[in-house]
Design goal:
By secondary structure, this protein is mostly beta strands. The chain has one helix and 20 strands. The chain has a six-stranded mixed beta sheet with strand order 12-20-19-14-16-17, with no helix packed on it. Strand 3 and strand 4 form a beta hairpin.
């Protein structure tokens, strides 16, 4: 999945420009109508992308406008009025495949994109979810369950999979379908989803948790994460797991000396 932001604009100082597919920042343009106090925000919508609009008055705090637009290789336009002294807009896009961007759930938190916009949470961030009294930001905690402090011979798999659980730090409850990433941060080995020589190897793996908060392969299987040691002797590797704003968890795996 790819997400990105396009350029920010000061709403009261827009300009006119025709969009084309090759324009930087999708040709985002803000056109004011001083006689009516209205504005037209437009950009080139690429096919396969879904677009969201965010607004801010200080470039620090951003909120979503309840708008979802689908790219179709043509210009997208959004008209609005504002009496603010200053207003900044930016477009956020994702290339998640969808035929129904309103009812789909891009971040996998169990709430549709449209419902999240209506309730003020971020439809592109699992850890931003609707709450009883408004949107809440979940601070996850990462708990290593197995696979830390292992040793094995060079160019062999560490015996135990790297297993981690993601929980809500406020309640201690496991987080289901929570996104996290395993990355080799030191050592030069690789990550795999099976401890066999033919398994595809990765420097980084994006994952989702199961119903108990345990990390499983993002593609939907329940395979564990394994570490294939580098070729050298006495090498200490570090594999870092990250999720949202949680403090990273770090696994240490070392190769044996063979002499």
């Amino acid at each position: 999945m790819k997400c990105g932001f396009l350029i920010c604009f000061l709403a009261l100082a827009g300009f006119v420009q025709a969009q084309s597919p090759n324009d930087p920042n999708e040709g985002t343009t803000l056109t004011p109508d001083s006689s009516s106090g209205t504005y037209l925000f437009s950009w080139w919508g690429h096919a396969g992308r879904t677009y969201f609009i965010q607004q801010s008055e200080d470039l620090q705090t951003w909120s979503y406008v309840p708008i979802i637009e689908t790219g179709a290789d043509q210009t997208i336009q959004w008209g609005f009025s504002s009496s603010a002294d200053k207003l900044f807009l930016r477009v956020k896009y994702t290339d998640v495949a969808t035929s129904d961007p309103f009812n789909d759930d891009f971040d996998g938190d169990g709430v549709s994109n449209w419902d999240e916009l209506q309730q003020g949470s971020d439809p592109n961030n699992y850890y931003s979810q609707p709450g009883a009294n408004g949107p809440v930001t979940i601070l996850p905690a990462l708990n290593i369950l197995s696979g830390n402090n292992q040793t094995s011979d060079p160019v062999t798999f560490a015996a135990n999979p790297l297993l981690i659980q993601v929980t809500d730090s406020a309640t201690g409850l496991p987080l289901s379908n929570a996104p996290l990433t395993f990355s080799v941060s030191q050592g030069g080995g690789t990550l795999t989803t099976a401890n066999t020589p033919v398994a595809q190897q990765y420097d980084s793996l994006q994952m989702r948790t199961d119903n108990d908060g345990y990390a499983v392969v993002y593609q939907g299987t329940t395979a564990a994460v394994y570490y294939l040691q580098p070729a050298g002797e006495g090498i200490t590797s570090q594999i870092t797991a990250t999720a949202g704003t949680a403090f990273p968890a770090q696994f240490t795996v070392t190769t044996n000396y063979m002499s």
